[in-house]
User: What shape does this take?
Amino acid sequence: MSQNGDEPFQLILNRSLSDQSGLKLRMSDFGLRAYQEEVVQRALQGENTIIWLPTGGGKTRAAVYVSKRHLETTRKAKVVVLVNKVHLVEQHYKNEFQPHLGGEYKVVLVSGECDEKDFFGNVVKDSDLVICTAQILENALNNKEDSKHVELSDITLLIIDECHHTHKEGVYNKIMRHYIEKKLRKEGPLPQILGLTASPGTGGGKTLQKAVDHVLQICANLDSAIVSSKIYAPELKKKVPRPIKKFDIVDPRPKDPFGDHLKWMMRQIHEILTLPPDFTLREIGTQEYEADVVILEKKGVHDSSRLLAQCALHLRQYNDALLINDTLRMSDAYHSLEAFYSTKDATAIDGTDFFLLGLFQENQTELRMLARDACFENPKMDQLQRTLLEQFGPLEKSRGIIFCKTRTSTICLNDWVHKNPALREAGIKAAILTGAGNGISYMTQNEQRDTIRNFRDGALNLLISTSVAEEGLDIPECNLVVRYGLLTNEIAQQQASGRARAPGSVYSVVAQAGGREVRREHTNEFLEELTGKAIGVVQSMDPREFRSKITELHVEAVISSRLAETLKGKKKSRYSAANIQLLCRNCFEPVAYGNDIRLVENAHYVNINPNFEKYYKAGGQVVIDRSFEDWEPGRVISCNNGNCNKEWGFEMKYKKAAILPNMSIKNFALETPEGRITAKKWKDVPFTVDEFILSDYGKDKFPGLFDDSV
Assistant: This one.
């Protein structure tokens, strides 16, 4: 599949043998290895390609070289590099594109933290190469203002990092749907596509045909053929060796009185419940049980049953404590419950609340005592300690990463490491690495940068991380990677394994004998092998058959997208906003109507009805570690009905004047003409929300000021 835009001048590679040697020399000067030279050949000829190389194989460097040759040989060249995480914008800019291209070309980075996003169209026009988050380009494609708008025809090479995320309703796929629709309508020119991935995966397929179908779908989504190293695969294997894999297996706890007591308390709650017909709760202490009680809480809201809804919420907290107890310390599980029962969500409104609060309070002392009994501590923690001490010591210069499931897990493990004398004596200096966001368990962008820099410089030698460190981040080679309490797919497993690249490195799975983690790890090994076979099948397809299949998938994608948009439009207009009441999710008090809500800057849903003030009370100031152009956070808002205190969101000061209650829809129930429902996100509500217009808000707030006679 060739580029549909301005065709690049034919590379000297294809014109003469003498110039072939010249290109080879430039590749060598650029520092490309033979396997990298191999995988960029089709991209250098202007073809849409997906480069498949393992983590540490140098995909980004290969993309920099393709960009360089594209800029040198293409008329009016314009390169845009898309990433799926904010921190990768600066990383790719500082480590790869600016050092290698910045001397000759204007290389610019744009992220949500940059002012340049507000005139992105101008930035693209004035630059040779732009690195940005995918959402910024998606916004620009849909924005009609000249200074912000970008057309795909403005771009001649579009590079998509971690391109296996180009599926379903992901932002990469939304961008590529623009591309595919234009291609089918023959609305050129279009950019050349270059995708980069370490792990396309099987898409959940467990057979070769299903895996082939998934790889073909990824190829169709990116309108690209997938390439990998064949001739120089031995060199690639030498450059990116596989770590030594081992299963550090422990026997189950002989006794677990703390966990048993939690289960007994949950059964006390079960006894006051009347479950809906044909509804059965699965095994306590599992992810399946958690999914069941989430459904149960929604059912309680729908049926106006506080008993059902509140019992489900509390059962989820106990189940979370059991899951923590299975992976971390008993004290961590106890503190998670203690933290919940000290929040506003655990206040008494009626008999249900008195029972649930009383149950915890009556058993709190017993739980605390059991959690302190070292005789029954989690054996996985002992094994994790042994695994770490095998690699770390006072004279060892090791680096390691522990991958775990949740931010809570990272906090608890970090606390454990710092309080563990044996690990301190071994010279382990640990820190947390999680995704960026707002809240006590999130990191800021600066904190992420500082942590990774300290790890690279040796001030830290152990990262305790969520999946944020699995892909993309510029993290040094590690001697040890530990997967701890994780049930993930083969893509995440491959990404994590790729972090253990130092000579003689170890990839350890710490798990209970016969546990689900071990079974999942073996399944992922099979799926990783299946991915390679599926890619081989796709690569060996007859070119005409491949193109025919890709075109067929393009047509299917466009039709499916149009149908989905139609259904979405119908859902949004299903009810009039004035016919929808918003109720507090906790006490079911009606507090607002749908037509009170406005959308600010396509991001914040606020209540503009001045009467809404009497339904909420304001608490402490919200602190966000960044500033915004047109608004700043205010105080937390919560339900003012009796003892409810359910948090709803926070006030925001807009344009330094308007105080607008910013509402989180997950904290409310919706009363519709056909019954009560819940929504996880505002995009799921069955009515249309109008945009916020400050002048209209002012007319409503100060009617005399805007009177026509003035």
Remarks:
- The two ends are 65 Å apart (CA to CA).
- Residues 543-572 form the longest helix (30 residues).
